[in-house]
Amino acid sequence: MNLEVAICSPVVREALHDSLLALEGIEPSLIAPGDLPDAALAADVLVLSGTNYSRELAQALESADRRCRWLLLLSAGYELLEQYGVSPSVRVANAGSVWSPVVAEHTMALLLALARRLPAAFAAQTRSRWDDTIRREMGALTASTLVIVGMGSIGGEVARRARAFGMTIIGVSRSGRSHADADRMYPVSELREALAQADFVVVALPLSSGTKGIIGAGELAACASHVSLVNVGRGPVVDSVALEQALKAGVILGAGLDVTDPEPLPADSALWQLPNVIITPHLGGAAPAQYYRRLTEHVTRNVSAIAAGTQIRDLVDTSGFAHPRSQGESR
Q1: pLDDT at 324 > cutoff 50
Q2: 306 DSSP 8-state letter
Q3: For 54-104, how does the pLDDT look when each residue is reduced to its tens digit (9 = 90+)?
């Protein structure tokens, strides 16, 4: 029997369709977001962005009539899946390995800009001023310690790039198990101890009930005053009020924020005006058009693996997600 694959994608729709159509025994179709619940009943595999997941789709995946047994996400994030729940009999893979390299590049750009005081240099440039006093504030990545909070695919990619700059890598994960790309690892229960050793901090955590606000006033206070923090995970992982206060009070030196809370960041937020903050509008995953070939290849490879019964890349552990039925019973 052929494998039915329904594709709901805002990008590379035709490329995905044509790539899957070329596989023997695969029947792809293009659908709209509103068609996803019905497609769960008719297709073996749904290809979709994590932002297109909904309560209705979660309920459809609970139906005894549903055919779908795989969700292949085009995104790295899967917050809505955790929020609405996924049937235990449905397996999920994301596209973390696709987007992690370019997010890591953006992370390094923010780290370098903060260390080398580029905001101050840009400000002087707008005034046509040769301000060599900036050199007195200059920092460096080399021979410094980077604490990465969240050693998933993004954290690993950041670690490998940071090591090339001569940085010592300390990783923080839920378990604290050893990691090939970290010099030392700490469990999240010892987060403050890890932060106390940092010169720079990168936050690369997904948003969940367990990670929301995990970087708060106490965690920022555990950092040395020369620390700069970069958040490329999700905005609410860092307590925005505590961060603003810490930056104003000199508790930490600076911040590079590709994600904020809320997002988009309101025009009246004080963070826009702070000279020690760099804000980019969630550009970490932005890439040139040719980069999207990686996404098509990733999905095609995973669909081939499903058809062959072989190993899938970027499997997501959904064991801690809400269960759709229990959600319905609690409302």
Answers
A1: yes
A2: H
A3: 999 999 999 988 999 999 999 999 999 999 999 999 999 999 999 999 999
Instruction: Quickly tell me which residue has 């469990």 as its tokens.
Output: 187
Residues known to be catalytic: 234, 263, 282
Q: Are 85 and 188 members of one domain?
A: no
Q: Locate 229 and state its tokens.
A: 């923090």
Q: Are 144 and 167 in contact (CB under 8 A)?
A: yes
Tell me, what DSSP letter sits at residue 288? -
Rounded Cα gap, residues 262 and 258, in angstroms: 12
Integer distance in angstroms from the first to the last C-alpha of the chain?
40
331 Cβ contact partners less than 8 Å away, ≥ 6 residues apart: none
Domain limits at 57? 3-95+289-330
**142: number of Cβ within 10 Å:** 8
| CA distance to 13, 30, 46, 80, 246, per residue, from 39 (Å) | 16, 10, 8, 18, 48
The reply to whether 247 falls in a domain is yes
User: What is the CB-side half-sphere exposure of residue 13 using CA atoms within 13 A?
Assistant: 10
Q: Are 207 and 234 in contact (CB under 8 A)?
A: yes
Residue 31 CA, chain-centre distance (Å), reads 26
Give the residue from 142, 154, 152, 134 showing the smallest Cα distance to 199: 142
Is residue 284 assigned to a domain?
Answer: no
pLDDT tens-digit readout, 242-260: 999 999 999 999 999 999 9
**One domain, residues 141 and 75:** no
Which of helix, strand or coil describes residue 97?
Answer: helix
Sign of torsion over alpha carbons 243, 222, 197, 177: negative
